[in-house]
Amino acid sequence: MLYLDNSATTSILPEVKDKMLTYLSSEFGNPSGKYYDLAEKAKKAVEEARQHISQLLSAKTIEVIFTGGATESNNTVIKGVADKYKEIGKHIITSKTEHKAVLDVCEYLETNGFDVTYLNVDQYGRIDPQELQQAIRKDTILVSIIWGNNELGSINDIKTISAICKERNVFFHTDATQVVGKLEIDWENLTGISFLSCSAHKLHGPKGVGALLIRSDAYGKLIPITPLIHGGGQENNVRSGTHSVHNIVGFGEAARIAFDNLSANSEHLKKLEGNLCTTLRNKFKTNVAFNSDTQNKIPGIINVRFKGVNNEILLKKISSVIAASTGSACSSTKPSYVLQATGLDLKSVRESVRFSLSPYTSLEELKVFEQL
Ligand code: PMP
What we know:
alpha/beta, Aspartate Aminotransferase, domain 2, 2 domains, 3-stranded antiparallel sheet, 12 strands, binds 4'-deoxy-4'-aminopyridoxal-5'-phosphate
């Protein structure tokens, strides 16, 4: 069976699993413990992982806050900024094609007296930076725009968006869950990005661990936000809870491998994507249409419409050969709101399928499409 739902989650690499197993067995110490070796070794492992993640993202190690995944990172930053800066303003800007882990947080805040602007998107799900410019108000405290869309793969113009937010003195958060490990992240130079969310299980690491990057100032002080999870303050007083050492170690190893192979993986994904699109075009001719753009996109995410064929029926039919999805696994029971926001009619949305590839998918494996 060919697994092509890598935007939902990825397999754990053997090297990642091996590293994790050590911290699930003999090295079981609590990194917050003191004086004895077991705790010191766990602490060293957590800090090494932090180093790998900061390298992948071009961030400083102190800016990396470990969380329980991107959903938690998004919740932490949006609720944390809202609470901390509510006296300054109660207006938040986001877009209609964000992940549910942003949209639902914004909707929750609306029930608590916040005002949220949901920016429209173009046919590929990208916002227009000019519209953002016009939407920023005196009471805007946060802009949250996804870096790369999980259903279409389209990339927002984060350089321009972050520059606008910096100039207008508004915090900018980006959900980079789908791009981390696939594209270069220039956090160091894109200083208009205040916060960034990502997750290990999208880059062949474990589930249940992610990171929130928070921009530091020249003195190493992070932008203050109200913590979502209070307690022992393990993660720079922003996030509490005993470190999930095995998960963090796994995340670190996945980040190290992704960093070492970034450009080769990206090239391979582009090649796979080109090959798959050509096969689909040759085989299904005018009966297929592509919802994804061909440029400025995450390599390896293809959203395609099989005209006249219901996507659920199709996916069920091919499920013993190919595993793919109709869109986000986090909102799979309803027709995709992301595709609807791009202007696709409901019939077309119901004919659309997402194939998401991995750098570990081979060209050989894609031949299965020729036999469909
Ligand atoms: N944001 C995006 C863009 C995602 O694709 C996902 C995963 N579906 C998430 C957030 C949530 O990540 P996690 O599973 O780590 O909570």
